[in-house]
């Protein structure tokens, strides 16, 4: 009996040790390379490179929010071919370059879900810096929907989780007004293919149709996605909202933007 009890205790200690080692094992910060815990980025870099960059009014394109280098007010891409027409404004938080690319990869491809709360907090900081003292209750969060079968295959959708966490910390309700009919991944398409004007793969969802029929008060929509590449996705989603909710205001918010 005594021997059996000792064996049980030893097994418990081993399993507890594995669990603690998994939860609190140190890894290198994706930015500064110092040791950090529970995430791929240390809190020092979170405050310095994510939370502080969110409200900064750096030189951005007035149309797509890309970082400007030598251009004045409007970036070269929007001068040559304007994609964003339906959305009222576009706001992005971080540039998609250097170690920021690895940050997005860790979240989307390596299931580093601890980043969802960090990203949601950065979104809230950005929203408050844009709206100022305006009430957040007048806005509705609308996530860009995933391609069909993604949640069944991966088990979760990053944008959906981001919006859920943002709703909890901000008090803004989430409305899943859109759904996607095409299963083709946009990231695998060339720029010209993305910008082709054909059938819109985004449509109003069943719940969206019900709301459009009954009317939706304070129709200010915060359209949320992870990355702004060409702007085609955001334009298509915005056009659907504008079509079924006349007079609404659509603010696009993405975590990253491709320069």
What would the keywords be for this entry?
259 residues, alpha/beta, 4-stranded parallel β-sheet, 10 helices
Please give a structural write-up:
- The structure is a single chain.
- With 259 residues, this protein is α/β, with parallel strands linked by helices.
- Helix 5 crosses helix 7 (158-170).
- It has a 4-stranded parallel sheet with strand order 3-8-7-4, with helices on both faces. Strands 1-2 form a two-stranded antiparallel sheet.
- It is 42% helix and 15% strand.
- The termini are far apart.
- It is globular and about 65 Å long.
Brief write-up:
The protein is of the alpha/beta class and 259 residues long.
Helix-strand blueprint:
Elements: H1 2-24, E1 27-28, E2 35-36, H2 43-51, H3 76-80, E3 89-95, H4 99-108, H5 115-131, E4 139-143, H6 150-154, H7 158-170, E5 178-180, H8 191-194, E6 202-204, H9 206-214, E7 220-228, H10 232-244, E8 249-257
Parallel strand pairs: 3-8, 4-7, 7-8
Antiparallel strand pairs: 1-2, 5-6
- Main beta-sheet strand count, sense and barrel state: 4 strands, parallel
pLDDT under 50 segments (min length 5)?
A: 17-22
Radius of gyration: 21 Å
User: Average pLDDT, to the nearest integer?
Assistant: 85
Q: How are the strands ordered across the major sheet?
A: 3-8-7-4
Number of strands: 8
Helix fraction, binned, reads 40-55%
Supply the helix-strand structural class: alpha/beta
Tell me the β content: 15-25%
- SSE order: HEEHHEHHEHHEHEHEHE
Helical segment count: 10
Give the CA-based shape. Answer: globular
State the distance separating the first and last CA atoms. 68 Å
